């Protein structure tokens, strides 16, 4: 559901400003159109064959200058206070880091949890710290009516306070390359107890320091944006049946046929720009990870037959 109704505190604030401005515009449009048509009919040439000079009216001119000025200023004032509201994070907000990259989102909580979807408790103000690992992205939650550029090399922020349980869409609002339109995720607003349960449970996993399973790394490290695991086409080759596959590759300008084995996968992930696979764009990013993580990922890819 993309054009969802406004929700959360920011949703109401933004919608009110928007409705106020649209209402004034409609009233002005109707008034001006009506007067134009009325004058055209009333003062048509048939009725007034000879033009006459008319004296200006100071009062009339003052009125039609002052009233529209006040209306425009009220729109400015209303917009400005709305903007200030959207930029002032209430105290006690829960902070979550958001990482954007081509072409997926990652959320990092204060206790170390990482997840491709954002889970939050209802009623709690949430502050998001936004950074990008590559190009400019735009973090956009239509239902909450909030949007902020996510720029590499700087941290922007955004806050919202959900007032309603449910699942809401997150989109990228900046054209950031080939798969931009698939850079989607969800915000899940949970009852407080349910959130706490999830938060504590996940924290134990993190504390146990077990290397996360390959599937989770596949999502957290963002491979999912470019590689499918079921054979369906994405920007990069599917992981399904990758092990043992024969493919045409170019290494240092030399074309050859390679058989994908464990070492090939490992080296490709560590140095993605040495070998190129025929038929794919050379855009695989170098993604930092530990040796254990790399092993878990390679094992996961090997398991996808
Ligand atoms: Cu993007």
Topology:
Blueprint: H1 8-42, H2 58-87, E1 94-101, E2 104-109, E3 114-115, E4 118-121, E5 126-132, E6 137-141, E7 146-150, E8 156-160, E9 166-172, E10 185-190, H3 192-207, H4 214-220, E11 246-251, E12 254-259, H5 262-270, E13 275-277, H6 291-303
Parallel strand pairs: 1-5, 4-10
Antiparallel strand pairs: 1-2, 2-3, 5-8, 6-7, 6-9, 9-10, 11-12, 11-13
Helix pairs in contact: 1-2, 4-6, 5-6
Bound molecules: copper (II) ion (CU).
Copper (II) ion binds next to loops.
Describe the protein in words.
With 305 residues, the protein is α+β, with helices and mostly antiparallel strands. The chain is 36% helix and 23% strand. The chain folds into three domains: 8-87, Helix Hairpins; 94-207, Cupredoxins -  blue copper proteins (Immunoglobulin-like); 214-303, Cytochrome Bc1 Complex, Chain D, domain 2, CATH 1.10.760. The chain has helices spanning 8-42, 58-87, 192-207, 214-220, 262-270, 291-303; strands at residues 94-101, 104-109, 114-115, 118-121, 126-132, 137-141, 146-150, 156-160, 166-172, 185-190, 246-251, 254-259, 275-277. A five-stranded mixed beta sheet has the order 3-2-1-5-8. A five-stranded mixed beta sheet has the order 4-10-9-6-7. A three-stranded antiparallel beta sheet has the order 12-11-13, with no helix packed on it. Helix 1 (8-42) runs antiparallel to helix 2. The chain binds copper (II) ion. Copper (II) ion is lined by residues 100, 137, 172, 174, 176, 180, 183.
């Amino acid at each position: 559901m993309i054009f969802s109704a406004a929700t959360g505190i920011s949703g109401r604030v933004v919608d009110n400003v928007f409705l106020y401005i649209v209402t004034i515009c409609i009233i002005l449009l109707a008034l001006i159109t009506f007067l134009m048509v009325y004058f055209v009919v009333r003062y048509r040439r048939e009725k007034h064959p000879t033009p006459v000079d008319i004296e200006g009216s100071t009062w009339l001119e003052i009125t039609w200058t002052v009233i529209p000025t006040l209306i425009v200023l009220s729109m400015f004032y209303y917009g400005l206070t709305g903007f200030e509201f959207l930029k002032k994070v209430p105290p006690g907000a829960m902070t979550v880091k958001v990482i954007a990259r081509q072409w997926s989102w990652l959320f990092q909580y204060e206790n170390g949890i990482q997840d491709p979807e954002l889970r939050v408790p209802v009623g709690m103000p949430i502050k998001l710290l936004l950074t990008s690992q590559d190009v400019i992205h735009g973090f956009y939650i239509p239902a909450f009516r909030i949007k902020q550029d996510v720029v590499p090399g700087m941290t922007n922020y955004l806050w919202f306070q959900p007032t309603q349980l449910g699942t809401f869409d997150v989109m990228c609002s900046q054209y950031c390359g080939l798969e931009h339109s698939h850079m989607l995720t969800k915000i899940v607003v949970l009852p407080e107890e349910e959130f706490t349960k999830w938060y504590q449970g996940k924290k134990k996993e993190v504390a146990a320091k077990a290397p996360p399973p390959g599937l989770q790394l596949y999502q957290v490290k963002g491979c999912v944006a470019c590689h499918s695991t079921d054979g369906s086409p994405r920007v990069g080759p599917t992981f399904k049946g990758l092990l043992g596959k024969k493919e045409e590759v170019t290494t240092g300008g030399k074309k050859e046929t390679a058989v994908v084995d464990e070492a090939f996968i490992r080296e490709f992930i560590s140095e993605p720009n040495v070998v190129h696979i025929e038929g794919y764009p050379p855009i695989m990013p170098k993604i930092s990870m530990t040796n254990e993580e790399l092993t878990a990922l390679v094992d996961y890819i090997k398991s996808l037959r």
